[in-house]
Design a protein that fits this description.
Elements: H1 20-28, H2 39-43, H3 45-50, H4 52-61, H5 78-181, H6 186-223, H7 225-230, H8 232-324, H9 329-483, E1 487-494, E2 508-515, E3 518-525, E4 528-536, E5 539-541, H10 547-558, E6 567-573, H11 580-583, H12 589-604, E7 610-619, E8 622-625, E9 630-632, E10 654-656, H13 659-672, E11 681-689, E12 696-708, H14 715-719, H15 721-738, H16 752-760, E13 766-774, E14 776-777, H17 780-795, E15 799-800, E16 803-804
Parallel strand pairs: 1-5, 1-13, 6-12, 6-13
Antiparallel strand pairs: 2-3, 2-14, 3-4, 7-8, 7-10, 7-11, 8-9, 11-12, 15-16
Helix pairs in contact: 5-8, 5-9, 6-8, 8-9, 15-16
Length: 807
């Protein structure tokens, strides 16, 4: 399967690692400076003086190893120097090629600096233009503020005018009321009406002036339509002016309405007075009528008295008739009885009429008394009205004086209005000037924008050139990585180990500092430096380095999988929390590697194979399949036959072909497992599975190995010989693979981890080791053990059974 050397991934790309400094140390036998002690002073001699027991344990665990000093190569015989000269010549040729690649990268970097300078100049121009724009905007805003202040003054003036007009309206209402009550003062009201007409004429003149202003505004609108599109805020101000003008019109109309209402009220009051007079005349007529009625009633009473005097005469006449008619009495008895009955009825009717007349007399007397009282009250009211008329005349004189004062105040306000209009005209002229200036600045800005567009096109071209140069640089970097040796060693500094408190080294501590590609180890007692040494590495990362930065330097190794080569990345650490560098759910090197491989497949490959991953832990000669989360205790106790078999080939595997499966199948399992707090060696394998064939493609793969380094201060771990066997045999395996010597290692029935890794890395592997060390710690022995291990792997000077393997 073929793949391109670089991809458009969101994973950070690798940077060039300069390695010639370390090769010099390997040729010259070490990079020691004046005043610095060699490596053996820290690793062997001081530790023997301070803690012999711990050194004895260390020697017991690693007995077959010897540290060869760099000066041994210089003391060799002339017969042995000839093959080294050839190696030196090859190294020199490689260094010359590396220097050429560096020169090309420097030229590319210089070009990039030039591009950045051009970009900086363009950004300055843009900032200057933006400042000019802000200055013009500020000037426009200041003018707008002045206009707003002028408008506020106009509003205050109009409010004052409204108040005074309201006062005048009140006075006019009072005057109209007085005119309605008193007809005599109509001449005075006519003079007031003439004044009102004069005010109307003034208002009409103001209205004409406002119409002229509207015409001017419309003419300005017609002239400056293009500017009004650009100056939307001026539109708002003009609309406000129009609204104010409409308000003035409405106020004038309301004022005219009020004048009409006052005139109507005056007419109504006049009509009311006429009605009162008519009512008075009606009441007098009614009184005369009532007097005539009383006279008629008196006449009727006199007539009734006369009739009462004539009644006995009638009785005599009737008695005479009765005497004359005694003969006919029996015949006329009935008639007489009837006449008696009629007479009795008439008497009753007379009495009723008499009672009614008495009642009428009493009611008429009461009405006369009430009318007399009403006449007295009317006379008193007329006197009060006369007094009120006098008071109203005095008030009218005062109100006339007040009206004259208000007229003078109105004249002053008119003069102020004229001055404000002059200010408005001056501000409008100034605004026109500012508009012209703004148009000039806008033209300049358009020209600068065109220039910016041209510069942007140039910048885009430069970016394309930069991308092409970056691709060429990446290819050169990959070629340089291919010319590098078969094994590289990185060092990652962790924060200070504060919680670690050692009893043997309670005063002393070890501090590590970066210096280019070298690590300076200083053994301190308080603030005093006891000894120091330099450890060269291929790359050193400080405490603030992220996982992305470390992965950027590992992609050259990871891409070797497409060349059918096995890749193995080791990490050495003491604390369990340091394995997050590999196995963090979303930021570890394992997650970033799978994401990088999936993106390269999506870009380059036509058929999309899948990746099969396995994850297991080895500790105390036992292996745990983490994806299955069960122990496989296939190794029996050595008491029954002293034979141990490794049947660990059946591991739970997970197939991943896209980013979604990566998130669902792998990340969720790794984040939910209980293995994070457990000690042991962890192995994560990635193999390629082709969909065309059901079998796995075992020719190439990537293996991440986290090695739990032994803690010398913890005696329980040192007593566990089986763990030490795994660790030591694994280091021998790494040395053989680095030196491309595969025959010297044989499968051990006692070590699971080396046997498993030897199966994965048997085909021309590329090895990368990452040491994780605290920047300052009191655990001196364990830290020095890892530093010595890193230097030995970097120089390939590990000796096993009297057979030296040199690179």
């Amino acid at each position: 399967m073929k793949a391109n050397t670089w991809t458009k991934s969101r994973i950070p790309q690798p940077t060039l690692v300069r390695h010639h400094g370390t090769t010099k140390t390997r040729e010259s036998g070490g990079n020691l400076k004046r005043g610095e002690t060699p490596l053996t002073e820290i690793s062997n001699e001081p530790t023997v003086e301070e803690s012999k027991s711990d050194n004895a344990l260390q020697c017991s665990t690693v007995r077959g190893w010897k540290t060869v000093k760099p000066n041994i190569a210089l003391k060799a015989t002339k017969d042995k120097e000839e093959p080294f000269r050839k190696v030196k010549e090859r190294l020199e040729t490689q260094e010359s090629k590396i220097e050429q690649a560096e020169q090309t990268t420097k030229s590319y970097e210089e070009q990039q600096q030039q591009y950045q300078q051009q970009m900086y100049i363009l950004l300055k121009d843009i900032k200057y233009l933006e400042e000019q724009e802000t200055s013009t905007k500020e000037s426009i805003n200041s003018l707008e503020k002045e206009l707003i202040l002028a408008m506020r003054e106009l509003e205050t003036f109009e409010q004052n005018r409204k108040q005074k007009e309201e006062q005048l309206d009140e006075l006019k209402v009072q005057i109209s009321v007085i005119q309605g009550q008193i007809q005599v003062e109509e001449t005075k009201t006519q003079s007031i009406q003439s004044r009102i007409e004069e005010q109307r004429a003034m208002l009409s003149s103001l209205y004409e002036e406002e119409l002229s202003l509207q015409k001017q505004i419309q003419s300005e609108r017609n002239r400056n339509q293009d500017e009004l599109y650009k100056m939307e805020e001026m539109n708002t101000t003009e609309t406000n002016l129009e609204t104010e003008i409409t308000k003035m019109k409405e106020q004038k109309e309301e004022h005219a309405k009020l004048v009409l209402e006052q005139e109507n009220e005056r007419e109504e009051t006049i009509q009311q007075l006429e009605r009162l007079k008519e009512d008075f005349y009606r009441q007098e007529i009614e009184i005369h009528q009532k007097e005539e009625e009383e006279r008629a009633l008196e006449k009727e009473i006199a007539d009734l008295d006369l009739q009462g005097e004539q009644y006995p005469q009638r009785k005599n006449e009737l008695e005479q008739e009765i005497a004359h008619l005694k003969d006919n009495l029996n015949v006329v008895k009935v008639n007489i009885d009837q006449l008696k009955a009629s007479i009795s009825q008439r008497q009753n009717d007379y009495k009723a009429q008499k009672d009614a007349l008495e009642d009428l007399r009493q009611s008429s007397e009461r009405a006369l008394s009430t009318e007399k009282t009403n006449l007295a009250s009317m006379q008193s009211q007329l006197e009060q009205l006369n007094e009120k008329n006098k008071q109203i005349q005095h008030a009218i004189k005062k109100k006339q004086d007040d009206a004259e004062y208000f007229n003078s105040a109105l004249d002053q306000q008119r003069t102020l209005l004229v001055s404000l209009r002059n200010k408005m005209s001056a501000l409008e002229l100034r605004l026109d000037e500012e508009r012209n200036i703004h148009l000039i600045e806008q033209q300049k800005l358009n020209a600068l924008q065109e220039r910016m567009q041209t510069q942007q096109s140039i910048i885009d071209e430069l970016k394309e050139q930069r991308r092409n140069n970056g691709a060429i640089q990446e290819e050169l970097q990959r070629k340089v990585y291919e010319m590098r040796p078969n094994m590289q060693v990185f060092c990652k500094l962790e924060p200070n180990d504060i919680t670690d408190e050692s009893t043997a080294d309670s005063v002393q501590h070890l501090s590590l500092d970066m210096r280019n590609s070298e690590l300076v180890a200083r053994k301190m007692r308080g603030l005093e430096e006891v000894s120091s040494s330099i450890f060269p590495f291929d790359q050193i990362f400080d405490t603030d380095a992220t996982h992305d930065e470390i992965f950027r330097h590992c992609t050259a190794f990871i891409d070797q999988i497409w060349k059918t080569r096995n890749v193995c990345i080791f990490s050495y650490a003491i604390d369990t929390h340091q394995r997050q560098l590999f196995f963090d759910a979303n930021q570890g090197l394992v997650f970033l590697t799978l994401l990088h491989l999936l993106e390269t497949l999506n870009v380059t490959s036509e058929c999309k194979p899948a990746f099969v991953v396995e994850f297991f832990r080895v500790w105390e000669d036992k292996m745990e399949d983490i994806f299955h989360s069960t122990w496989n205790d296939d190794i029996k106790d050595s008491v029954q036959g002293n034979t141990r078999t490794d049947t660990t080939s059946n591991l739970t595997s997970i197939e991943i072909s896209n980013a979604k499966q990566l998130q669902e199948r792998l990340v969720t399992r790794m984040s939910s497992q209980h293995w994070k707090s457990q000690r042991g060696h962890f192995v994560f394998r990635i193999n390629i599975k082709d969909e065309a064939s059901p079998s796995f493609n075992m020719q190439s793969g990537i293996t991440f190995v986290y090695l739990q380094a032994p803690d010398i201060q913890d005696k329980k771990t040192l007593q566990n010989q089986e763990t030490e066997k795994n660790f030591v045999s694994l280091l021998h395996l790494l040395t053989q693979l680095a030196n491309r010597e595969k025959t010297g290692f044989s499968n051990s029935p006692y070590c699971i981890l080396p046997n498993k890794l030897f199966e994965c890395l048997s085909n021309n592997p590329k090895l990368l080791s990452i040491l994780q060390l605290p920047k300052s710690t009191r655990n001196i022995q364990s830290t020095l053990l890892l530093l010595n291990l890193g230097q030995k792997l970097n120089c390939c000077e590990i000796v096993q059974r009297k057979a030296a393997f040199h690179r």
